[in-house]
Write a structure and sequence with these properties.
This protein is mainly α. The protein contains three helices and no strands. The protein has a domain of about 30 residues. The longest helix is centred in the middle third of the chain and has 32 residues.
């Protein structure tokens, strides 16, 4: 069920959005609805990806065994560490 909302928007911006909507053969209402739908979908996707990364990090904690990089390996001067030079 759709609900109506009141939106305060600068008159100049509204004029530009009306032109854009006309160019796309749609309404300002549809543009706003599509924008908000995409915004929510993107946030949900980010949440799902974050949750999956956290799950993987919890499950894989012990996979490296006792190995830890030595200081010499970390700061070896290998090209991957020279990004800003």
């Amino acid at each position: 069920m759709s609900k109506n909302i009141t939106l305060a928007i600068d008159e100049n911006l509204l004029d530009k959005v009306r032109v854009l909507a006309a160019m796309k053969r749609t309404s300002v209402n549809e543009l706003v609805r599509n924008f908000l739908t995409r915004l929510v979908e993107q946030e949900q996707q980010r949440d799902e990806i974050t949750e999956e990364l956290l799950r993987l990090s919890r499950e894989r904690m012990g996979d490296m065994g006792d190995w830890q990089p030595r200081r010499e390996e970390t700061y070896s001067g290998h090209p991957r560490f020279d990004r800003w030079r």
